[in-house]
Design brief:
Distance between the termini: 12 Å
Helix content: 25-40%
Radius of gyration: 14 Å
Shape: elongated
Strand order of the largest sheet: 1-2
Strand content: 35-45%
Order of helices and strands: HEEH
Amino acid sequence: MISQLNVVMTYIVKNRLGSVLMEHKQVLSQCPEFLSLKQSL
């Protein structure tokens, strides 16, 4: 069910002035931990 939802988490790191220093997007269905959990069920 969760793999069909296409959940995307976005991590944004900003400095004190609000400028974006780093941005990373992780698709839950492509996460290695999620894949191993899915296979164990």
